[in-house]
What we know:
- The chain starts with 19 loop residues before the first strand and ends in a 5-residue tail after the last strand.
- The protein is of the alpha+beta class.
- Strand 14 and strand 15 form a beta hairpin.
- The chain has two domains: 224 residues, Gyrase A, domain 2 (2-Layer Sandwich); 73 residues, Elongation Factor Tu (Ef-tu), domain 3.
- Keywords: Membrane, Transmembrane, Transmembrane helix.
- This is tRNA-modifying protein YgfZ.
- InterPro entries: YgfZ/GCV_T_CS, YgfZ/GcvT.
Amino acid sequence: MKFFNNLNTQIFLSKFLPLTCMSIEHLSLVYVLGSDAKKYLNQQFSIEIDHITLKNYKIGAHCNYNGKVWGVLIIMLFRLGYLYLIPTDIVKKQILELKKYSVFSKIKIYILSNFNLFGISGKNSENFLSKIFMKNFFIKKNIEYIKNYIFLKICIPIFRVLILVPKTLTFKFLKKIPIDIQKNNYIQWLSLDIESNFPIITQKNMGKFLPQLLNLKFWNAINFKKGCYYGQEMIFKIETKKIFNTHLICIKGISNFLPKIGDSIYCFRNNIFYSVGKIFYAIFINTKKIFLQVSLKNQYIHYNTFFLTANTTFLLKIFKYNL
């Protein structure tokens, strides 16, 4: 659905981002409720469900039996159960996997479609939100429930807020957004995810990577002390033995084409091109500059120059963001 008439599709790095409202079309909402919801989700997700409160949402992973990640989610309390955000690209497959073991549990799992999603970030965004909603935001909490709106705070790479707006209140919400504020689509939000090394899971990479290889320890998305959940044994084994052969990083470069998910990036050594990583996600920042999320082999993490193809035409550099 098109919400903005004067959409500006220029993508900004976080330090240059003006005050911006983004329409978030790439995420879906999944509602889980029932008397067994907490117990069931605790057996499926990599986090302690009891740690989700009215003051704090959690980022977690849903893994398969071998510890590989089906999806990365943001989960919160909602009405009589739990609500989580997950990419639309994988939501049907992820729900199918989540429902596999629910036959004997009193639980319902379905996509919730009565919200529209928006993001606010950029210069003075915290003051802007406080002003239009007459509220001091996020004092010792990362989630706010204000009337029928839900606000989720993320502080990396800069202050940004994901807003769940009931469809019945969307027109009222949009009237609060000044005409002169920058309007953009979900690609700007994904750019901030890439910059902050937040893993973007798609159908092409789901079920292939352990959570430690997706920077999910940094996001406190793995609880090593909780009871059994699917994939826990392998995740704990990898953590104990420190078997980390790849690392998720952000790379910026020059290219006249957008590479595909799963394409290789290369390092040039001793007159030979070596494939050293795989592309997780790619976006154009402008006409010839690209932003990549890359799973890079650990032995090349301290290199600074890479190439998009096995020639020296398309130069790539690691984008430094200190995790």
